[in-house]
Write a structure and sequence with these properties.
The protein is of the alpha+beta class. It contains nine helices and four strands. It has two domains: 202 residues, Cation efflux protein transmembrane domain (Alpha-lytic protease prodomain-like, Up-down Bundle), CATH 1.20.1510; 86 residues, Alpha-Beta Plaits (2-Layer Sandwich), CATH 3.30.70. A hairpin with a 2-residue loop joins strand 1 and strand 2. The chain starts with a helix and ends with a strand. This is Protein p34. Pfam families: Cation_efflux, ZT_dimer.
Length: 321
């Protein structure tokens, strides 16, 4: 009975934290993730119809790649939901890195899709066949490509604004799908005009290699987040400038460290103040710098360690009066 009560209390606590997030900015990413799932189903249906009309191996490969879109949209939706849960006793820094796991999974599934396409292309290149109703198939596939291109743009632009690696990764994944569809359409058009039906599987193989490259790059970028890679140099420059100009009353700042996890940018450093500075005055300086950093770097999590003047290293950030 006690175990049941413990489980019920745990479930209640988790649900409370999730409900607390309903009004936060993550709700925007949740809507976009739901939209990705819906778009994924529609695009897959259109591409499957195009393959059924034509019998083209390239269109079959394109449809296979779209099944990954649906799976990764589900993964992104789950990851964003988990990342939205506030920090707790077991995860004091929050759950933001869940989005990086989703992005890695998407990269892996992109590579799997590319291998499936290569397999289909290899099997058909030695026995090319005439494609049925190529124009009709191209029109249906073209409609799916236009929808994908529009949603790809939405995900990448909004994902960057919301600082959501999962949405940006999903958008880049859709971008590879758009490139795939464009290559497939070109192959079918050339094959129809020239009668060289071997172009159908050949183009599918070439596009698959491009998808392999895209998937490997996505995995590399996502792993850098999991390994606590520092923020980009442009952001780091902004952080240094803010500390230098806003930490009036301090002497210097050193041991600056940064990392990012999902929407949040973690910043921590040591701030050296004159030895006669009171705790209250030092705290006021820290509050001022923290506020300035959060204005310059949205969703920043700032930790400042105050040190007396004899701890100065004279190698960090000089504070300007």
């Amino acid at each position: 009975m006690r175990n049941i009560k413990t489980l019920l209390r745990t479930r209640t606590a988790v649900m409370t934290r999730i409900e607390a997030c309903e009004g936060c900015p993550v709700s925007t990413t949740m809507k976009l993730a739901f939209g990705s799932l819906l778009v994924g189903f529609v695009v897959f249906g259109l591409k499957a119809l195009a393959w059924w009309i034509t019998g083209s191996v390239a269109l079959l490969s394109d449809a296979l790649e779209s099944t990954v879109n649906v799976a990764t949209a589900i993964a992104a939706l789950i990851a964003i939901r988990v990342a939205a849960v506030p920090a707790d006793a077991n995860h004091p820094y929050g759950h933001h890195k869940a989005e990086f796991f989703s992005a890695v999974l998407e990269g892996v599934m992109i590579i799997i899709a590319a291998l499936l396409i290569l397999h289909q292309a290899y099997g058909s290149i030695f026995a090319p066949k005439v494609i049925d109703a190529p124009i009709e198939g191209l029109l249906v596939n073209g409609a799916a490509t236009v929808l994908n291109a529009f949603w790809c743009w939405v995900l990448i632009t909004r994902g960057r604004v919301e600082k959501s690696p999962a949405l940006v990764a999903d958008g880049r994944h859709l971008l590879t799908d758009v490139v795939t569809s464009a290559g497939v359409a070109l192959g079918l058009l050339l094959a129809t005009v020239t009668g060289w039906w071997i172009l159908d599987p050949a183009l599918a193989g070439i596009v698959a290699l491009n998808i392999l490259w895209s998937g490997s790059r996505m995995i590399k970028e996502s792993l850098s987040g999991l390994l606590d890679e520092a923020v980009p140099e442009e952001t780091l420059k902004v952080i240094r400038e803010v500390i230098s100009t806003e930490a009036g009353g301090a002497v210097e700042a050193h041991d600056l460290r940064t990392r990012h996890a999902g929407r949040v940018t973690f910043i921590d450093f040591h701030l050296v103040v004159p030895g006669e500075t009171s705790v209250s005055d030092a705290h006021e300086v820290c509050d001022h710098v923290e506020l300035a950093l959060k204005e310059a770097v949205p969703d920043a999590n700032v930790t400042i360690h105050v040190e007396p003047e004899h701890k100065a290293k004279h190698t960090g950030i000089i504070v300007l009066d």
